[in-house]
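## retry 2 of 3
previous attempt timed out at serialization; input unchanged, resubmitting
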Amino acid sequence: MAFSGKKVLIASLGTRGDTQPYVALAKELVNLGAEVVLSTGQGFDAMIEAAGARARPVPIDYQALLRDTEVREALFSLKGAIKLARKSVRLQRDIVRMLWQTGLEEKPDLILFNLKATAMTLVARRLNVPALPTALQPVTARTRAFPVPLFGLPNLGPGLNAMSYGFFRRLMSAGIAPVLKSLKHDAQAELAQSGSLMDGHLPPGGRPLNLQAFSKALVPDPGDWSAEVWQSGYWFTEPDPSYRPPPDLAAFLEGGPPPVYLGFGSMPSRDPTGLTGIVLSALRTTGQRAILATGWGGLTAAALDESMAKQIHLLDKAPHSWLFPRCSGVVHHGGAGTTHEALRWGKPSLVCPVFADQPFWGARVHRIGAGPAPIRQKKLTTENLARALKDLEMPTFRDGAERAARLMASEPGAKGTADQLARYQMRYPASFPRQAG
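## retry succeeded, writing output
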């Protein structure tokens, strides 16, 4: 098999949306014969092991973290973000040290890492193995077509767009510098080497393959990415044929036309009760059947009364790959995973972003004609949400979503990325030493 006798270490820090696509890739690498170790936050071991990989969690529970009062405040104010950043340096140092130790203990032949785990480049320098950067958003590959999509910036023009990526790199370097102090003695030689940790490591020299795991349906190749950038499409989890929905969910879906799905993933709300009230009031206005996913996010079951029980179904969680095909449209926060999953099934979407890359994905969905203009979560009202919910029913948005779905189905995805990595190891065989013993 293509990866027989080879070990791949994947490091991806973040919420479920930052983990699940890497699990999908891990499964495909396992199918090619690789031993795969996945290092991420706590709480994902079962999902990782079900893919045939081995979990090496770091000391952080992102679900619990997002429920912390200070963390929630950091999402909604600059003052809160600064306070949290100062407080979290010790935690981040512990995580970096754990990544370093994990890498040296596992001795992988290949490392894949996301933007929050750039310390893995130091491991690759020590072991002299390839470390390939990966991204679920177009933030690591410089382009003149649009600015770095993490700050809600408008199009700044070609020159300033390109400059924004340099600014982002300097910001990342400044942010990780105090965290790396925990390795200043153990990794002194590796820290002294030139080059950005964001770019990974390739033993023969030069720049390693840079995996961009998002769809051309949303982000067409801008034409000026450097040669090492390879866009694979999103790394989707395939539907589980053994999944059986709870009886009440199955009964609701069978009891009328396809409902609209509303849920905000891992994003907490500053006022969950108020947000839920707006959602329910808008649904009273439109009369649409709906599934409200509470999960980690900003919706609560407390505001639902008996008069709406037949119109609305409350849901803790269900696999999006099973549920979205049975819905008429999707209202969500604009995480990369949910954005791609909705369009994968040809479902028009309304994005209600909170921060980071979410406004970018909302704008992209609207730009390709797959949903109404995004409405920031803090700007939601009964009136504008009701209008947008009715707009989701427009045939033009359904057509736009279905066009995106057809393109996504043709992209390499997780399986094609595993195959590409197999070809890559054939191109640079000296970079993939067989581990002894």
